[in-house]
Write a structure and sequence with these properties.
Enolase-like, domain 1; 3-stranded antiparallel β-sheet; homodimer; alpha+beta; WH_DNA-bd_sf (chains A, B); DNA-binding; DNA binding (chains A, B)
DNA sequence: ATTAGCACTCTTGCTTCAAGAGTGCTAATA
DNA sequence: TATTAGCACTCTTGAAGCAAGAGTGCTAAT
């Protein structure tokens, strides 16, 4: 009973602080929240909560504000993420439905998410490493330069220029291109690189083999490029709008460090389908010490689909680093530690769901 | 003589203010700059300059700061943009030279420019409307969905999904694709749309013609899409670093309004090769009232190349909206009105030059 | 046309002060 | 033992007052 009320107090403090952003005192709590005890009692509880590290007071004679630990408890208690209402979900689907390409869909998604949460939103494009090749095109830019365009099953398009020392006849390139596409389709990028390399060795390619090797190296590089999944960020202006409680510079710096953000969000969205939350120092990122990150993976590789097609395609080597159910990309939102966690988590989840559908759906495409 | 010294004083005030960011008084001026007159004389000049609208004093008893008009005069006087030193230019070329694709080059460019100027940098990808088609690929995503990938001579890649109501045999699509590429190559996008549309009518395409028409519409839409040239922005964090003299929110808002920025920069970079400067209200953009924009076009369509190839290719209709020497995209930097104009203009110019070379160079490609 | 000198104006930083909010502790109560 | 009333104490916040400093405008002299 006692323990229980203490936590109710904690919850009340946090809710109030999230609303008002001001240190909350015992009397406010006693008045506004129906705790049925006097302010003095609450004072005792708050003192205890402070001892336990859930609350802190900015100065001797002010109300209390939650600590990182406080928020963590609060978020953990928030176990069941409230689903958005059907209407809200429909609105999202509606807004995103007439996207015209994957990029377009992702751009809309960040903007939408940022708008819903009123915070910074981040969406990554599907990681190339975790996608399958749908087509590899080789477009001559000049006699000695080729543009390799790789289209993945997630709908993303990556490009890379290759320059050669020799001039190659275009029909031979076409042939090679056809051959590559025949062999590589539906392999992961790293597997495809292997295919191409093998092709370079086996076939009677003569002057082409050099080119093929270069191409293989390129594809491999793409697969391993950590920041391969393009990052979309929106809503940085929202940051400038909140009264500058503190210095925003480090936060902005962090946002420009794409690699850092990428790693952070990826870690956070490991277990699929669920939204992850990192609060303050949990982000292990200098600029985010007073921010929280809410993120979810999306685009889990469809399990049955994979295994079905694994057995079908004998050409594909086993060293594919697919992890079943590992998300292919992520979507998230970054805000102050005193953000509205419930709302943010719901929104992130909803957008993630939508994007997952969208990607899995490439049998029907974007309408 | 008198007129001349007044303007020297103006120049000195502006230079000092750009350095220190603090209102500059007559005594400082007399001491630090070798004007050879007393502070009282300078006071008179400053009073005159204030009457003429070049200077203003924030409060009765403070130094003077430049007005918009002051900056304008200053910038106009700065006629000859200082070229960067050979070493600096080499450093730029060096940093950008191992770009691996157009996107990559553009991303590096913004980051670099932002780093050099210490301000926000913006680079647009080549506008599709002003580029020529190098290749149009049609990749089936499913039986009823096609991904159209358009590759332009500037090296940019645009994509768009098309969904159909009927299933089309893939070999027929290949044929159509070949035909389209045969006819459209080297046309502008809008011309290509026309080609495809004509193809749809003339050929015995049967069930394909519907698809072709859809494709034509898509290509046309891409050509007309104002924001088609993707926008790259870097260095927003720099904004947060300068002491917040004033509210940054509107500035951030403006930066997120891609369409607005796009239009502004485009207008500013009309006359090619030269950098344009818009100061404060000259930008006609609410959020930029105390910012200045320095921008330059890049990637002028190479004049002779165009005309040569205009006569050669009889298939291309005349309604191409090429304007000789009109830039294809732009690069610029945004900073406070008290920025270091000379340095910023030099940097913008250097990067623009480099990018122009890069694009024109698609006969040699990225090294 | 320039300059020295001087009175005047404003900002800026500091200190003081009173009001208000909130706490911690003690002693009384159920 | 858990709760509560009461009270002294602490600390922030805002206003007000004040002295120092910077810079100007004006006048009179060169």
């Amino acid at each position: 009973m006692k323990q229980s009320r203490r936590m109710l107090v904690l919850r009340a403090v946090i809710e109030d602080y999230i609303r008002t952003q001001e240190p909350v005192g015992s009397s406010t709590l006693a008045r506004e929240y129906g705790l049925g005890v006097s302010s003095a009692t609450i004072r005792n509880d708050m003192a205890a909560l402070e001892d336990e590290g859930y609350l802190i007071q900015p100065h001797t004679s002010a109300g209390r504000i939650p600590t990182e630990r406080g928020y963590r408890y609060f978020v953990d208690e928030l176990a069941s993420v409230v689903r958005l209402s059907a209407a809200q979900r429909r609105a999202i689907a509606n807004f995103l439905s007439d996207s015209v390409s994957l990029q377009d869909a992702l751009e809309r998604s960040v903007r939408l998410l940022s708008h819903i949460t009123g915070q910074v939103a981040i969406v990554s494009g599907p990681s190339l490493a975790k996608s399958r090749v749908r087509r590899i095109e080789i477009v001559p830019l000049s006699t000695t330069t080729m543009l390799a365009v790789i289209i993945t099953d997630a709908g993303s398009v990556a490009q890379h220029t290759l320059s050669l020392d020799v001039t190659l006849p275009s029909d031979r390139i076409m042939d090679l291109s056809d051959e590559i596409n025949r062999v590589c389709i539906n392999s992961s990028l790293s597997a495809a690189a292997g295919c191409i390399r093998r092709l370079a060795a086996v076939q009677d390619l003569r002057e082409m083999s050099n080119f093929a090797i270069k191409l293989a190296r390129t594809v491999e590089a793409m697969a391993n490029d950590e920041r391969s999944g393009q990052l979309y960020i929106a809503g940085t202006s929202q940051l400038a709008h909140q009264q500058p409680t503190e210095d925003l510079a480090p936060l902005f710096d962090a946002l420009e460090e794409q690699a850092v953000i990428m790693r952070l969000m990826n870690n956070l969205s490991q277990q699929n389908g669920e939204v992850g939350v990192a609060i303050g120092s949990e982000t292990k990122t200098p600029g985010l010490m007073s921010s929280a990150v809410v993120s979810s993976g999306y685009g889990h590789s469809m399990v049955d689909q994979i295994s079905a097609d694994r057995s079908a395609d004998a050409d594909r080597p086993d060293n594919d680093n697919y992890r079943q159910d590992a998300p292919v990309a992520f979507v998230g939102s970054i805000g102050p530690t005193h953000m509205d966690y419930a709302a943010t988590m719901s929104a992130v989840r909803a957008v993630a769901r939508y994007l997952t559908e969208l990607i899995a759906q490439d049998d029907t495409g974007w309408s």
